[in-house]
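Subject: Sanity check before I submit

Could someone independently write out the structure tokens for this chain? I want to compare against mine line by line before I put it in a report. The sequence has 408 residues.
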Amino acid sequence: MRILLWHGYLLGGTGSNVYTRALAREWSRAGHDVVVFSQEPHTEAYDLGGAAVVRPEIGGLLPVFVLDRYEGVEAKLLQDFTREERERYVALNAAAVREHLPADLVFTNHVLLGAPVGAAVGAPFTVKAHGSELEYSMRGNADLSAWGREALAAAKAVVVGSEHIRAVLEEVVGHVDRVHEVPPGVDVELFHPQPRGAALDNLIRSAIDDPPNPDNANERLPDDGNAERFESFFAGDIPVVLYFGKLIRNKGVHLLLDAVRGLDARALIVGFGDYREALEEMAPFGTLFTGPLEHRHLVHLLPLVDVCVVPSIFPEAFGMVAAEAAAAGVAPLVARHSGLAEVAAGVKAEYPPELRDLASFTDDLPAKLRRLLELPAETRLELGLAARRAVVERWSWSSVAERLLTLH
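---
Independent answer below. Compare away.
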């Protein structure tokens, strides 16, 4: 098949970015002719399986759901765009996609602005709803919700990653036909358990290869000196509790820091965002902040930690972070709501009955975390391997990519 895969953002870091590059890689490896449209300026840094890449000209203004810095463009909240700015962005992207027709499948990300772009291309298209656009920009905005509803009506199929996002989609835009639930995937070959010594050596080598970041001025690059800090941080045997993701208040990282305080454990915080400075001020002694890390780091970092916590206080489309940790053989502990609860349900199904409640938490994060850390190391290892079984059976990228094509 010839597949045109449109994604208006980057290819590294956040969930929809990872989703896009993983689909491009899996579809390309399966022999399909794939073209990826994104604003990623450094596509050579990512494995897209040989897919062609296009960076559409968008006129310098990028509609986003959470404000970040983007190289070469000005980010502006979608809800702050004028109608003329929105229509110009859609027209420019649709024109870039049309240049690569004909195609067997046009696949676009995000209800907004993926559905309007797909509709403007003029070919049959599928839309993937990721949740961020629904929660951060569209919810409560009648104009954007109506626009999304109108554009989705033209889609051949609408994909949601969880039952939670199916419900949110209907709450925000109203009833939508042709909705299919296909959860995101995890690269279970990339994320896998490793011996501690080998994992640490590989992590340090990955950090040594990081580009310079003087004074950590570029928030999208790993912190300078991570290699030395990793070597020191993992020299002891004190348990390590990991968070990786965006550093914004809605991710609930402050709850994790509060839970770790008073435990015989240290927190490791990976990511970037406007809440980092406040988190550093409240972090207990011994906490390590690294800046953002890519998969080439995380695949070696995860096998070194004891527990991975996903403490979001805002709805999540799917617990990708938890699934990646589980694939690496690390027991995840996630907030029991939205798409996170669905990941927890899959993981705990593989746990022994007496420990199934340790897959998730509500208002009892400190107690659950303490219980996990007080388990014998062998038991935690068994839980991690059980969690990996759940991921391999339910959320491998190869099966996800194949299921998406069956919708076509």
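---
OP: Matches mine. For the report I'm noting this point. The CA atoms of residues 77 and 113 lie 12 Å apart.
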